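#help-structures

NK: newbie question. if I give both the sequence and a SMILES, will the prediction place the ligand too? trying with flavin-adenine dinucleotide
OV: yes, paste both and it writes out the complex. here, I ran yours:
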Amino acid sequence: MIRQPEPKPEVLSRRDEIVAALRALVPPHPLSGESVIADPLRLKPYETDGLSAYRQPPLAVVLPSTTDEVASVLRFCHANGVRVVPRGAGTSLSGGALPMADSVVIGLMRMNRILEVDFDNRLAVVEAGVTNIGITRAVEERGFFYAPDPSSQLACMIGGNVMMNSGGAHCLKYGVTANNLLGLTFVTIEGEVLRLGGAHLDAAGYDWLGLVTGSEGQLGVVTEVTVRILRGPEGARAMLAAFGSVEAAGRAVDAIIGSGIIPVALEFMDRPCIHACEAFAHAGYPLDAEAMLIIEVEGSVAEQDELLARIRDICAPLNPTSMKIAESAEQSAAIWKGRKGAFGAIGRISPDYLCMDGTIPTSELPGVLTRIGEMSRRYGLAVANVFHAGDGNLHPLIMFDANDPDSLRRAEAFGAEILKLCVEVGGCLTGEHGVGVEKRDLMGVQFTARELDQQRAIKSAFDPGWLLNPSKVFPLAQAAG
Ligand SMILES: Cc1cc2nc3c(=O)[nH]c(=O)nc-3n(C[C@H](O)[C@H](O)[C@H](O)COP(=O)(O)OP(=O)(O)OC[C@H]3O[C@@H](n4cnc5c(N)ncnc54)[C@H](O)[C@@H]3O)c2cc1C
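OV: that's the protein plus ligand as structure tokens.
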């Protein structure tokens, strides 16, 4: 189970005073109403995030609508030694937005305005609470889109994406959030408002954007984001390649990437996942296969035809049990339908699951998947694999029963062993979900004590009192504050 830092008694005992001060700083919104939540029942939705095995109600939640309000809340918390947990949509799968009992949650969801769209310079400026899909919706009329596409894109917010450096199925070609980010408005714990980056891919001086991207709400609060928008491709088409073994599918991934082709997406599903998704989405998936790949290419029709034919030829020697090339946008959508609903589909067959997230070199896929299968038998817990195979970004979904403490304990140990294996074969602890509370105690597997000290020194430089999301990223015993 996850341990949290001891709550500060001096903060808990001043709860009413702190809530009153926050109410004075962030008055009710004319349309959305109350901006500070302290009633225990109304705090319930904020006590957990996408890692719902762990829960902790915060001291209070504050819902600012402007950068100035965020700055004044941070200034107050800094002056009073109050811990702060920034929160977007709360979809983090690593417990990044899990509160502490003595913390104030700053929810950014009311900051949801599109501030500027500049098609000539291919950028958009949006507030941190705009959903990921909301950016594409704001620009698609003119044929543009925002590329990083987490599966949670209907709900998750761009501020959370920046703080987790989120990825998605199409990041194989377009890169993750960091590769599509131009600038930020960023508020420090002292309440100072900084503009980092700007409207270009590079900015003079140190790379501040690079430093704060992926910092999991530990260095400051993002209020505005400038992103690159791209013109959509002429067209895109998917194909499905099914195999009689996980190893053969893994070798196909390796061969496609090794050939120099960069599909726009290359996704992997194993047998349990194929069955769960087919029962849920009726997408026509091959139920006789042990594993299948969804491969999408884009460009003109001629380019699509050529790339799909080359990929089919690369897969053929691996004896696929079936291959299906979509002939239309509708057929492509049908192939994607099951994949997009994969997490929900697993939720239908298991009361609870842990979604792990680690990255490995693609050449290690067959061996790693075999060892995950062995672990599954040893821990007595089912696992389904669905992941961004082209990036080597694994997402084993470990099924367990949260009502059974032993089942949760085994799931946690199983997950930790998978992540250690990722590091052992030359990969890393996270691909896109961040460290949060979930992986913080494994950071020593990836980094030396000296490297962790240096990372903590950066945290201390931004936030000397360790007030911003302090229980995340670093092993608890080593977190300051
Ligand atoms: C079904 C499902 C599918 C998912 N698929 C993907 C996927 O394909 N790819 C992927 O990368 N992730 C995925 N995720 C994980 C999650 O959606 C991402 O991590 C996302 O970026 C979190 O955004 P959020 O707005 O929900 O942030 P939250 O969960 O609210 O917060 C995430 C972290 O960012 C911090 N934070 C949030 N907003 C701010 C801000 N404005 N300023 C400072 N700190 C902030 C929080 O403190 C926390 O540490 C998935 C999650 C679910 C539930």
